[in-house]
Every structure is written in structure tokens, then in C-alpha cells.
Write a structure and sequence with these properties.
The chain is globular. By secondary structure, the protein is mainly β. The chain has one domain: EutN/Ccml (OB fold (Dihydrolipoamide Acetyltransferase, E2P), Beta Barrel), CATH 2.40.50.220. The chain has one helix and five strands; from the N terminus they run ββββαβ. It is 9% helix and 36% strand. The longest helix is centred in the C-terminal third of the chain and has 8 residues. A five-stranded mixed barrel has the order 1-2-3-5-4.
């Protein structure tokens, strides 16, 4: 799982059946402090994320199958949470 910032959405009228009725988003992996951390990626949005939001992205096919309720999905990355706040202070 990794943190990412949503850069935007992808519109596609013709796509693999596993992507029907899903929203595809472009995400930029980030560090907990908000710095870019690697190349951007495409992820299926399962939570209704929007552009500019910080999200949790799961990058594992088996877990994507559970989230999307598809037996063998052609999906690797799924947005599974919207981050409200990150607290990096030690306790």
C-alpha cells in the first residue's frame, strides 16, 4: 500500500470488461510529507476520490480482486481510501 495524490481521471469508452463501471484515476505516489515518490500510475477508484486528494493505493492483484469483487481482475492498483490527515509527530 502507498500514499498518492490524484492527478486526474481517465475517460475510456472501450476497455477491458473488468474496468466497466469503474473510474480510472492517474495517481502520483508521494512520501508522507507530500513529496513526489516515483512515476505516476493508473488506479481503479473504489472510494470516489477526486483530483488533488491524497489517497491510499493498494498495489496487489489478489487484494484488488477482493475490493472489486472480481475473481481474476485485470487490475493491479486500486484506490482504497481517502486520507484526511497524516500526523508525523512522535508520541
Amino acid at each position: 500500500m502507498f500514499l498518492a495524490r490524484v492527478l486526474g481521471s481517465i475517460v475510456s469508452t472501450i476497455k477491458h470488461p473488468d474496468y466497466n463501471s469503474t473510474k480510472l484515476m492517474v495517481v502520483q505516489p508521494i512520501t508522507p510529507t507530500g513529496e513526489d515518490d516515483g512515476p505516476s500510475a493508473v488506479a481503479v477508484d473504489s472510494v470516489g476520490a477526486g483530483k488533488g486528494e491524497t489517497v491510499l493505493v493498494l498495489r496487489q492483484g489478489a487484494a484488488a480482486a477482493l475490493v472489486l469483487n472480481v475473481k481474476l481482475p485485470a487490475v493491479r492498483s486500486v484506490i482504497v481510501g481517502i486520507v484526511d490527515h497524516i500526523d508525523l509527530t512522535s508520541q
